[in-house]
From TrEMBL:
The active site is at 132, 334. This is Asp domain-containing protein. Residues 114-452 form the Peptidase A1 domain. One of its GO terms (biological process) is proteolysis. Residues 1-27 form the signal peptide. It holds the Pfam family TAXi_N. One of its GO terms (molecular function) is aspartic-type endopeptidase activity. Keywords: Aspartyl protease, Disulfide bond, Hydrolase, Protease, Signal. Belongs to the peptidase A1 family. It comes from Cephalotus follicularis. It comes from the Eukaryota.
Length: 457
């Protein structure tokens, strides 16, 4: 079995750049998201790659859309990976208690992320939020921005204009327990609970905790949703208003909507930045056939969604990898990490097997320190790629889609979209590039994660 590769990634970013540049009116500098809807009683949110946003122009009078460079995307991705590894390493040193929309923990960065549009307040104000399975707290920038706010697409949320907004008080249980979601102890200002979260690249958000009506679809409204109202925010959030945490914490949207959706959600990430995926709360549709693997019992990954990796195949042949490689540090699945990171020995063995299936194509130079296996496929628009599959506990096999096998740097340089960890003790990370077009369902009470192929384009 093999995959046919077509050049999609760079061309989709170029298309978005041209579309953004053509919107020269100040009121519409982004591609307006489609309304969220309900499918079989489940709220379904549209998912977009954050490159679909056209942020406010960096230079007045220009209409050039910001398109992040590959180097910037990959550098931020490595920062995020380093932060995840650091968080897991630090957690081991100190004992701790353990609807469909059209598609961080404290120190974790955003990089090649996806966003959804939600409504907040009464009357509702639409906001674009990066969704992240490695984050816990939902937060958005808020007026009056007493410190500083970065530029975003929609008007900044003003809690004083919402009739359903309330501050979280300092002596409340919500305030006292918020440190698990933010990574820092809460503060108190005029009887209102305050929070702060710092990111590894210097990005940060600080403000106060409040609750308000959260609108997922016109018929799915969550009352008293707790979130962070950021009045002092800096960082590389590319025009979005903030973050929507889907992690394993009482303050994540997954836990706060447990009564409505039973702590089950699923998503499908689109193959290119010009297409739309989905984020659905509640059980997946019966018509979608998922294969489930248990969440890992590895104590190093309990803050994240951990998986037990059993191996890798290339074109159906099992790659020779010592099983102890996977158990040493464990594996997590993460919607915010772009490139899948593997233990060094596992990466080397998989890469060598992949190269054996690519001998008919000319090689290209490595791309910096990010990718060591690259090809010039400029004369081979329908190149046939070896199929890489990840094997998980429960006899679950997940093929990597063609759109997630190679990362196209330029027309004559396409690289194997995996990278080795720096140490065999670093947790492996199943990144979003390798999840494209795959339906992924997180069933928290069932203690399992499910996969289905070709759920979206």
């Amino acid at each position: 079995m093999a995959l046919s590769f077509r050049f999609l990634f760079s061309s989709s970013l170029l298309l978005l750049s041209l579309l953004c540049a053509s919107n020269k009116g100040g009121a519409h500098r982004y591609l307006k998201p489609k309304p969220n809807n309900v499918i079989d009683g489940r709220p379904n949110l549209n998912v977009y790659h954050k490159a679909k946003l056209c942020p406010p122009h960096d230079h007045p009078g220009t209409h050039k859309a910001y398109v992040p460079s590959h180097e910037e995307i990959l550098r931020l991705d490595q920062d995020r990976v380093d932060s995840i590894h650091s968080k897991i390493s630090n957690s081991n040193a100190i004992a701790k208690d353990s609807t469909t929309l059209p598609a961080k923990s404290g120190a974790i960065l955003n990089s090649g992320n996806y966003f959804v549009t939600i409504g907040l307040g009464t009357p509702k104000k639409e906001l674009s939020l990066i969704f992240d399975t490695g984050s816990f707290l939902a937060w958005t920038q808020c007026e009056p921005c007493s410190g500083s706010c970065y530029r975003q697409q929609e008007p900044i949320f003003d809690p004083s204009a919402s009739t359903s907004y309330n501050n979280i008080t300092c002596n409340s249980a919500t305030c006292q327990s918020s440190s698990s979601a933010t990574g820092t102890q809460p503060g108190c200002s005029d009887s209102t609970c305050t929070y702060a979260t710092a990111y590894g690249d210097g990005s940060a958000t600080a403000g106060f905790l409040g609750n308000d009506a959260l609108t997922l679809t016109d018929t799915d409204i969550v009352s008293n949703f707790v979130f962070g109202c950021g009045e002092n925010n800096t960082g590389l959030f590319h025009g979005t208003a903030g973050l929507l945490g889907l992690g394993r914490d009482p303050l994540s949207i997954v836990s706060q909507t447990a009564q409505e959706y039973n702590q089950v959600f699923s998503y499908c990430l689109p193959s290119t930045a010009s297409l739309t995926g989905s984020l659905t709360f509640g059980s997946p549709l019966a018509s979608q056939s998922f294969s489930y693997t248990p969440l890992s019992s590895n104590q190093q990954t309990t803050s994240f969604y951990g998986l037990d990796t059993k191996g890798i195949t290339v074109n159906g042949t099992t790659v020779n990898i010592d099983p102890s490689v996977w158990s040493t540090a464990g594996t997590i699945i993460d919607s915010g990490t772009v490139i899948t990171r593997l233990p060094p020995d596992a990466y080397s063995a998989m890469r060598d097997a992949f190269k054996q299936g690519m001998t008919q194509y000319p090689t290209a130079p490595p791309y910096g320190s990010f990718f060591d296996t690259c090809y010039d496929l400029s004369e081979y628009p329908n190149a046939t790629l070896p199929v890489i599959s990840l094997l998980f506990n429960g006899s679950v096999t997940v093929p990597v889609p063609v759109s997630g096998t190679l990362y196209q740097i330029q027309n004559n340089q396409s690289c194997l979209a995996f990278a080795p960890n720096g140490s065999p003790n670093d947790v492996a990370i199943y990144g979003n590039q390798q999840q494209l077009t795959i339906g992924v369902v997180y069933d928290v009470p069932g203690n399992q994660v499910g996969f289905a192929n070709n759920v979206c384009q």
